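Onboarding guide, step 5: your first structure request.
Type a short instruction followed by the sequence, for example:

Predict the 3D structure of this protein.
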Amino acid sequence: MKILRYIACAAAGSLLLAACQHPEVQIVDFDTFHPFSVKSADTFMENGELNPDVRMMDIGDEESDTKIAAATGQGIVKELLGSINSNSLIHIAGTYKGQDADGNPLTLSGKLLVPAKGPVKNLVIVSHFTIGANFECPSESFPLEGIIASKGYAVAIADYIGFGVTSHMVHPYMHTASTAQSVVDMALAVKPYLEHIGRAPESEKVILVGYSQGGSTTMAVMKLLQERYPTELPIEKVYAGGGPYDLNATFDLSMQEDITGIPCAIPMIVQGISVGEALDLDMADFFQPKLLENYEEWINSKKYTVGQINKLMGAKALHELMTEEGRDKSSSQTALLYKALLHNSTLNFQPRAHIYMFHSREDKTVPFVNALKAEQYFKHSNISFDFGEYGSHSMGALRFIFNVAKDL
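The system replies with structure tokens like these:
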């Protein structure tokens, strides 16, 4: 063990000292998880409102953003404020040993959040929703899902390949195997780290949480843990919301209706799946001229949020974004992509733990057909479906986190 530096109150001993208003934090370097930033932050402000630094989903829907702002002031306070274990959280951003999409060693990053005081119940493994800018990644922000730590949990949130310390790389968007592995590798790294700093969870079982891209990734994480890490990270319960579990069904619906609720997902998926599956697809076969000319800057610079990218793209109609060949499943290149989408859908295993699955029927970003496909596929599994008129995809994200935090 190597003590690198102290932050806030000067004292020796544990990682956290509850006698301080904002407890002492010391960076402790271990073989598994290497912190590079440690700080404390309150979940709620003195007036009872959610910390404005908490990063909400940004997909550029102004109406949803307005509703979210109102819901934030009412819903979170109502559901969480009276039942939190620790308002102050310790944010530990660090690196760990992972691997790239080809299985080669790669240093990745993420954030671990722990309550400043009180026991830790479980390790919650979060797979985050779609982001565009690097400043949105967990290690650089106060992620929305991190508020779960206030209920007495340690929350681990990986940045994913292509964000954080690997922001120079292409994010293999919706490549479930590599993304799930990056999430699991972080969980494996922080588990002994929590033991070393005296904050080991009371339960050995982990809880999985994810919404949108994170919902699909969470299902892939569940499958990976069942198959390869059943004793290292046994699963207690899974919460999956608004996820694109069936990529082919999503593709088919978008092509049929000639529209997408999240334009930036088009270049993200085509490029991400190509990189993740080593397909070496030519983006010129898929993207219309404006998108082809600008996607490197819009997507790979990691400077723009999802909402900003959507506005820069300026279209939702598929024929304005994709070439005729790119929209034709019978073309050779699109056939390769379509086959890869099938391979990266997450309706391909039988869960052994209970799942709470949430989706808004009004969701236009991740079509409700994904929930229907999941309900059909998992009809014989131990799963609770919560499908209702819950508003837009962004509104669904907030309600989903409310429901998870309330249930925990």
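Each response can be followed by summary notes, for example: Confidence is low (pLDDT under 50) at residues 1-24.
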